[in-house]
Task: structure prediction
Amino acid sequence: MNEANVEKKRLTNPPQTVNISIKRREKLGAQQYTETFEIPYRKNLNVISALMEIRKNPVTKDGKQTTPPVWDMNCLEQVCGICTMVINGRVRQSCSALVDDLLLAAGGNTITLEPMSKFPNVRDLTVDRTPMFNHLKKVHAWVELDGTHDLGAGPRMAQEDVQERYAYSRCMTCGCCLEACPQYSDDNYIGPQAIAQVRLFNMHPSGKMNRDERLEALMEDDGITNCGNAQNCIQVCPMSIPLTRAIYETNREVTIHGLFGWLRK
Amino acid sequence: MASKIKIAVVGGGLAGLAAAMKIAEAGHDVDLLSVVPVKRSHSVCAQGGINGAVNTKGEGDSPFKHFDDSVYGGDFLANQPPVQKMCEMAPSIIYLFDRMGVPFSRTKEGLLDFRRFGGTLHHRTAFAGASTGQQLLYALDEQVRRFESEGKVTKYEGWEMMSLVLDDHQVCRGLVAMNLQTLELKVFNADAVIMATGGPGLIFGKSTNSQVCTGSAVSACYQQGAKYANGEFIQVHPTSIPGEDKLRLMSESARGEGGRVWVPRNPQDTRNPQDVPESERNYFLEEKYPAYGNLVPRDIATREIFQVCLEGGGVNGENQVYLDLTHIPAETLTRKLGAILEIYEMFVGDDPRYVPMRIFPGVHYSMGGLWVDFDQKTNVPGLFAAGECDYSIHGANRLGANSLVSCVYGGFVAAPSAIDYAKNVERKNTETNGVHTSELKRQQEINNNLIKQTGTENQYQLHEEMGKIMTDNVTVVRYNDRLKATDDKLIELQDRLKRISINDSNLWATQAVPHARQLKNMLELARVITLGALNRDESRGAHYKPDFPDRNDEKYLKTTIAEWSGEAPILSYEAVDVSLIEPRKRDYSSGKAKAAGAEEAQKAGLPLKEGGTPQFVPEGFEQKPKNSDRQNIVNEKDAQIKDGESFKEIHEKD
Result:
């Protein structure tokens, strides 16, 4: 083990105060504006606790009383995906964004928070990610069951296959991949999230039986061929989902289905 | 029944989705309400697994053993018939999730793999990596999405339930909910309502719960006449990672792999932990419990850590102790504990392989909840409950990996029960007699008044004060004088809440109005928890009073029932159904024998009397003089610990 790892690089000389600069919007369609808040530095702050501090007493750095900033949060363990925003220019979950790390990486004592840009901006830092859930409907991201009554054990599977599926099944629909994707905007491309879910269900022994309808959903205008291979998605995925592999494997399936699928009809 | 029945499900976690799926599958309409998109519900946080006695390991496991372990672990406070039913249903629940595509870990033959968990000797826990809750929730989310795309389920995500609509005979006819963007209030007509809103962890300020776990909607039901049962039973996990915003769970496996708990002998010691010499460290668990050391059972570990900090002995005098793994080679740690150590590093910034972790017990789960009968019906006709928000399964203490199975079981029972009720209930004139609009009006007035209200109090400050006093006095160790003082404080906070002003002039998507309403409801439930604890002069499961250290079955083998009165909750007590397994002393040092003995007795059709299994301390322990002094208790615990050959089964109850 490398001795250099003994302790993580820490903020050795923390500032007295931290500036939190927030891109705000009163409501859907309203003008965006920026407000900066100053909070006292404390150890172990994350972006959420900084926002909580501001919410308690929303006064800007210039001493102006304002409305409390609005953001989404729930699990705070980076598993529900709701608190995603753009922090210092990078899309990520705000619960796992530690103030120390952000200051260390950026220098200075200012952190900028912006809502994700690819979804309707409801207010301040909240966005509406309904399109992502609609994508899941479109690609039939479920296993068709005969019923939920007791039919005994499920199909046998090799642990190796389970592991690959497990990686895809961790997707929390946070939207980082879509925010970072240069091809995704206004629903002209379904995006890596839904494609990885197609892979997840097409790998399952019973899910496979509806393989074709999932592939056909990816052959429409907003389908898989819109991928420009920028590979940004895999860089920003907080769950380290092998999105580019999903796109590659699924694209191959789509191509074969496009060429020979009619033979099976 | 003239027209189609309609059922509203409130909450989109495991229990709510399980119920919604069953109702839709039966061909009925469901309105599914959830504060957050259902895929972001708190169920995602469950890590360990889901219990079911599938017995694939040739260990002779059985649903009866699962049942026995569960009621024993719950210190016999649960009514036994539904627990037995749940344990019998558990294997088929696991199989169903497998068919839905949950990536459960597999054996070499490609069968489901099972792991050992707390409170049992059997491999009974199916798991999907370290995120079983997330995987199970997603499977139900997918099935419900299928029904949604077929038009059978209508989701209302971003809606929070405010109140029930009750008719003149106190029959539930639907509910009123608020759109969290527009603050619009809307009536949801329903023949039956299923509550599946999870736990109330936010009453304690910071807990391991998600931010939606306020218990607010359940509290609204309670204030409209639903009974709340066993509120005082709150599970506190010994090792959580204190954060500025929440407490995150640190798995017990850290201690299982050799983690040592300590504090500097001088609490004001400001040195880095690595620089504190051995002689100046207080390994208080090892000192007090030489046999088990850091691996004492969860409730004991929780109490000891809490006590050290309460007395000012925590690191820097704060509520934290060290959980130290640094004496173990880094590569061993990476191999055995990699995933959980990453969580610590992600949120704290320190690498636990080189820097001792700082941990503290954290409020984790409510065993109490809405009172329900064996069909998940509350006492309000037309109102049902399932999952953590009902009280029915876990008694005084929940075993690990039983929460996921109880959520699904609750949903699967509540759904047919609600359908059956809805088919037979007469709507009479409730659609035209204005009960819905008058409730809507009442809720609108509450909102209007809240928005107009002015005062100098700050609602977030009040929430912090509530969380602090509840955490200090109503969690691990409980004293009657402090419980009384806590209730006084809660009354004070209720009064001060009338003088908050909503500090947000922009009401679009504001969080200030919903939070103020949640806070009011949380304060009501906080009183139920506190006064339930005050009234229960015994120690049982998660409820521990040093002044009453014994379990007292004669007086308190009873369910606490709280009913709202406008003043303090009215408490009453209901007998527990122990018709299947006779209560015996909870003593894990004889754990191995008890399950076997119990099953043999059952096979023989015998009631489980003390003679059957001499390893148990039989019933009758309650004949001991009450309030035996503390030293006796400590000695007794040490004695148990020395006897124990099978510690493993107790050390990880989650």
